[in-house]
Specification:
The protein is of the alpha+beta class. Helix content is 28%, strand content 32%.
Amino acid sequence: MVPIGDFYKADERRRSSIEKRLGMDWYDVDGFRYELSWIHDTGELYLMSESNWTMIPGPGAYATGYIPSPQALVIATIPSGADVDSVLSGWRDAMRSSAGVGWVLDQIPGAIPDTDR
């Protein structure tokens, strides 16, 4: 995974492209939450983790809040939005189930290898 800013800088098409959002509440077996999106101009299906948080020091011993440090990982390239709909048919129900991120990876032949689904 790479920081989301670096992810977008690596290919400017990512920044200007339309993205198809496929849910913000995907979980892995360790309970970390991910967002799943597909980028029209690159065909990339990627997960974004927001599980890395940095505490902001505040006055005294208190923290004023947290800033997310999102990370992105391309898991597959799917040529069209129609193909995304076909490959991930039923994703809303799967997102709510315990299968989570593992379900997504199981739907895509050749998706990144993953040992911690």
